[in-house]
Amino acid sequence: MYNLKRNILVLVFTVISFVSANAQCAMCRAVLESEEGQATAKGINDGIIYLMAIPYILVGGIGFFIYRKFRTKKK
Phi/psi of residue 22, each to 5°? Predict the structure, then answer.
């Protein structure tokens, strides 16, 4: 039970820190900082976050289904 609570807590903190991350490569940052409206920079940040989220969601979903499959076999 302790491991489950710890894993859920780690997942929650990962998602919270993941959502607030603003990631950019150095070249993109230099080009986008020179723009006045910053609308493109916000769009690039959102795209990077979106692309970063997909692998975590897929791995988490596969892990959940594997966990559920093995848990139902024990009963």
Answer: -120, 95
Collapsed DSSP state (helix, strand, coil) of residue 58: helix
More confident call, 73 vs 68: 68
Torsion of CA 27, 30, 34, 38, to 10 degrees: 80
Q: Which helix (H) or strand (E) holds 56?
A: helix 39-74
Q: Where do the domains of the chain lie?
A: 22-74
pTM over the 0.70 mark: no
Quick one: which H or E segment has residue 8?
Answer: helix 2-19
Instruction: Report the Cα–Cα distance between both ends of the chain, in Å, rounded.
Output: 17
Region 13-32: mean pLDDT is 67
Using an 8 Å Cβ cutoff, are 3 and 10 in contact?
no
